[in-house]
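Practice problem 4.
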C-alpha cells in the first residue's frame, strides 16, 4: 500500500489504538509500547481511565513512553515488580502474513522485546502501510554492545552471506553527537536488506553473534495485529484469519483537526 498522508496516517493509528484500548479490563498489568502509534494507545488508555475509573498498572518500553504515561497520569511500575503482564500493546515497522515483525525504528527494541516476552498477549497496532508480503524493506535494527562494535558489525555482515544476503549495506544509527546510544547504553546497527528470504534463520544467526544484544525481528510473538484505517474502522488479523471490520468512533473534533 502506498504511504498515507500524515493526517490520514494519524487517524488510522488512532483507530487501531482505540480498538486495542477496548481490550483492557480492570486490574490488568499492561505493557505500553513505543512510537507514534503506541503513543495513541497510551493517550486513549489515560482517557478511559479518567472517564471510567479503570485501574491498571503499566510497564513502559522506553524512557519516552514512560514520560508520556507519567504526564497523562497512567500509573507505572517496573517489570521486575510484576513479573508477568496480561497484555502488551505496541507498534511495528513492518509485519508479514505470518505476523512476524520488524521493530526498533525508535531504538527501543530491547526493552520492547523483554516486555513482549513477559506478556500473556502481544497486540500490535498499525496502519496498513506496515503490512508487507515479506519483511526487509524497513532497515532491520540490531542492538550491539559498544565494546568492539566494529568487530560485531563485521560478524553480522559475514553472517548475512549464507542466508542469501551477501553484500547488503549496514549502517550505524546516528544520534545528535555521534553513534546513537539506546536507553540501555548500546549502539544500533541497521541492516538494509531489501527483502529477508528466511526470517527465522536470520533471527537465529544474529542471536548467535557475540556482541549482539538483541535484534528487531519478533518471530512468532504477536498474537494479533490491529490495522486501523483513516475512516475510523479497524480490523483484527490473527493466525486463524481476519475478524470483521469494526467501526471505531472518532470524535468530530479529531476529524476537523486532522482532515
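Answer key:
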Amino acid at each position: 500500500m502506498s504511504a498515507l498522508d500524515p493526517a490520514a496516517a494519524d487517524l488510522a493509528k488512532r483507530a487501531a489504538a482505540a480498538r486495542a484500548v477496548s481490550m483492557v479490563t480492570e486490574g490488568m498489568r499492561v505493557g505500553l509500547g513505543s512510537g507514534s502509534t503506541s503513543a495513541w494507545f497510551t493517550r486513549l488508555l489515560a482517557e478511559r481511565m479518567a472517564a471510567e475509573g479503570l485501574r491498571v498498572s503499566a510497564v513502559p518500553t522506553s524512557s519516552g513512553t514512560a514520560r508520556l504515561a507519567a504526564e497523562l497520569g497512567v500509573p507505572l511500575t517496573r517489570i521486575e515488580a510484576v513479573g508477568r503482564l496480561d497484555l502488551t500493546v505496541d507498534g511495528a515497522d513492518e509485519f508479514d502474513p505470518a505476523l512476524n515483525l520488524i521493530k526498533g525504528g525508535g531504538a527501543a527494541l530491547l526493552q520492547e522485546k523483554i516486555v513482549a516476552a513477559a506478556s500473556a498477549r502481544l497486540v500490535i497496532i498499525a496502519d496498513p502501510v506496515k503490512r508487507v508480503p515479506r519483511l526487509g524493506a524497513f532497515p532491520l535494527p540490531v542492538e550491539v554492545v559498544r565494546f568492539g562494535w566494529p568487530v560485531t558489525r563485521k560478524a553480522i555482515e559475514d553472517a548475512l552471506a549464507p542466508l542469501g544476503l551477501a553484500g547488503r549495506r549496514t549502517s550505524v544509527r546516528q544520534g545528535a553527537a555521534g553513534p546513537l546510544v539506546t536507553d540501555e547504553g548500546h549502539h544500533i546497527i541497521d541492516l538494509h536488506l531489501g527483502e529477508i528470504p528466511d526470517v527465522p534463520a536470520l533471527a537465529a544467526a544474529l542471536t548467535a553473534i557475540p556482541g549482539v544484544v538483541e535484534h528487531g525481528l519478533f518471530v512468532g510473538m504477536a498474537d494479533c495485529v490491529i490495522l486501523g484505517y483513516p475512516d475510523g474502522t479497524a480490523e483484527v488479523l490473527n493466525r486463524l484469519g481476519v475478524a470483521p471490520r469494526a467501526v471505531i468512533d472518532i470524535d468530530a473534533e479529531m476529524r476537523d483537526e486532522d482532515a
